[in-house]
Amino acid sequence: MTDNDIPILSEPPPEHWDEAFAKALISKTLLVGLTFLDDEGEVTERQQFFGVVIEADGHDGILLDLLGEHDGDTYALPPQTSNILAAEPGVTSLEGDTPDFVVNWAIHGSPDEPANDED
Predict the structure, then answer these.
(1) Could you give the 3-state DSSP secondary structure of residue 81?
(2) Are strands 101-108 and 74-77 parallel, antiparallel or unpaired?
(3) First and final CA of the chain: distance in angstroms?
(4) What is the pLDDT of residues 39-69, one digit of tens each?
(5) How many Å apart are CA 53 and CA 60, to the nearest integer?
(6) In angstroms, rounded to a whole number, what is the distance separating the alpha carbons of residues 22 and 4?
(7) Considering the entire predicted model, what is its pTM?
């Protein structure tokens, strides 16, 4: 697949996982924004990081090789492509890098709090 064949989404697709789009993300840069909310919905923390997509799997999720401040680390995102959008012109990471795509997540709970899968 060439860069000209990569589907650029202006709106997320209706399904959560688009296999063709996920595969097209490999080797592309992704700017991730995380907003942590407390039980009342108030923002407790924001994080931003940037990396290259090195794996995209409908079961295991999207694996990033991080750049910038976290260079050399990896980060796994959930297997969801529906909220990944093409970066608009002028969007940059905190380090000034220009991503190909952006994704934002709102997470209820502390970044130090592990998820409770029994709820």
Answers:
(1) coil
(2) unpaired
(3) 41
(4) 899 999 999 999 999 999 988 899 999 998 8
(5) 13
(6) 16
(7) 0.77
Tokens of 72: 């050399």
Q: Are 28 and 51 in contact (CB under 8 A)?
A: no
Q: For the residues 99-104, what does the mean pLDDT come to? A: 96
Please give the share of the chain, as a percent, with pLDDT higher than 90. Answer: 59
Contacts of 11 (CB under 8 A, 6+ apart): 85
Residues 73 and 21: their CA atoms lie apart, in Å, by 24
Tokens standing for residue 97: 């890098």
Six-digit token string for 90: 């002028």
In the numeric block, the tokens 């697949």 are attached to 1
Given a contact cutoff of 8 angstroms between Cβ atoms, the answer to whether 51 and 67 are in contact is yes
Q: Token pair of 64, please?
A: 């990033």
Torsion of CA 70, 36, 113, 117, to 10 degrees: -110
Q: How is residue 56 written in tokens?
A: 């995209």
Count CB-CB contacts under 10 A for residue 77: 20
- As given in the structure block, the two tokens for residue 114 are 């592990």
